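Honest question from a wet-lab person: if I give you the sequences of every part of a complex, can you actually get the arrangement of the whole thing, not just the pieces? Trying it with mine:
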Amino acid sequence: MVSLTASVTGKRQTQRPAGRTIGRPGLAWALPATIFFALFAVVPLVLVAVLSFTTWSGLGSPEYAGFDTWVRVFQDPVMIKSLWLSVLLTVLGVVVQTPLSILLGVWAAGPQRNRAVLSAVFFVPLLLSATAVSVLWRALLDPNFGVPSQARWLFGDGNLFGTQTAAIGVLVFVSTWQFTPFHALIYQGATRAIPQVLYQAAQIDGAGTVRQFFHITLPQLRNSIITSMILMIVGGLTTFDTVLILTQGGPGTDTTISAYYMYDKAFKGFDFGAGAAVALMLVVVATVISLIVVRVSGYDKMAGTKEGL
Amino acid sequence: MRRRPNYLAGLGALLWLALVGLPLYVMLGATVQTRAEYSANGPLAFPRSFTLDNYVQDFSNGFGQYFLNTVVVTVSVVAIVLLLVPPLAFTIVRNRGRGTSGVFRLFLLGLAIPAQAVIVPMFYVISKAGLYDNLIGIILPTAAFCLPVCTLILTGTMRDITSDLFEAMAMDGASVRRTFFQLVLPLSGSGLSTIVVFSALQAWNGFLFPLVLTQSEETKVITLGLYNFRTQYGINIPGLLAAVVLSTIPVLLVYLFARRALVQGLMGVGGK
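Yes, you can. This is the full assembly:
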């Protein structure tokens, strides 16, 4: 019996090379993480859809309400306004941060020593939490004790949280301050990966720094630009801490973006059904925009930037 | 290859440096002044006195408790991530079955789920589980939301282990477990340190889950403490900024000692 088993396993091993079967983990190795993730991320994602068809005040159990919750949410003018504000803030963020971070990233990718030192300082905003950044800027821009009170020639009455335009300006500025270094980091890595041959060839052809930037660097960064823009869009649409701490959605509801509106409805107004509906909408909008950007740019085909090399 | 120095770019970089450096300078300067001096001289003045009272005051206002809670949350989240992600990444890299690719796709999909999207049902689940206002109730969802990025990072590292090494282990008749502990883990050092740094940063800086899932003073973490100080202190800006500095010191220390892992980790953060 023993010898028989041995010969059978021996035969199997010659049929399939040992390295392909032995030492490979079964699916059981992936189960704990998968179950944990499903329980705390996927199940809630399904639940959010279910809850958007209920009314629930946070106490007791949710009650089925059909489309009533959705109708109620869409009848609220603040809700529509919040969607526009989310899109506006996101677009402004992308428009301001993309050129800045490309320039900074390309600059930091250079070989000089001082760039390494400077880019170490560039990183600091990344280390601070969104909460810390917001608290810091709220203090620095305080109408009574902050910088605007000292530079009235620049800031007028000094209250940067009093009008919609100024408040939106502050929000865009603060998120630029916090996230530009991160996107610059993406571009720095990508710029370093561009083959030097391209620049050498361009120099032989007599192309200057500016032409090299527009004809080599930018096209080579295409995939990074898409990645960074998708991150900016999803990040922008889900901005929350910054608004909560800097403007509380105000003045009035002038900076009440969707994520803040959701929090306000659910956890301040105890209307969790409405909160769930807004949350679901946020996910759908963020996913659709990302998909559109990916499709339009041809990113999904992973078109190489190495063509013609 | 000779290049002329690009003065315009250098100027731009210096401008950005000022934009980043000045606020940090103002923050540090404010925290070592008394409240009266700060109000009188304004934020841009050079500090004339030096006091650590603002920091001391923060600790007497509960900062120590917040700090301790944040440490507990951070250590637990890192522990869960380290326990769950390596076996998962090992399976994704080495098990070519259909089930595994389904699992991998699930985690890729998870990359796109923002925390806001699930916060309402999370509140429901955590309340029903009796974990509301309990640190465990913050730890579990925070760890879950670290998994997709960490899995992506670690599978990247583990794919770099050449198949020759796996075959050599198999020739020696090594079990799956031995392959994992004696080959895969030792060769994944860089990826492991990246996911430790990444998940620690996420846990340390997390705001939304603590805001919604806790309530009392005993369970407050640092970010919530900052948010609270902001309303409580109001016009005590030096005290408030001292709390901001205190909240960042541990992260700065990690930055000094593990810069490479931190930078890699940040590249995986994904904006938020």
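Two things worth pointing out. Chain B touches chain A through 104 residues (CB under 8 Å). Chain B has a mean pLDDT of 88.
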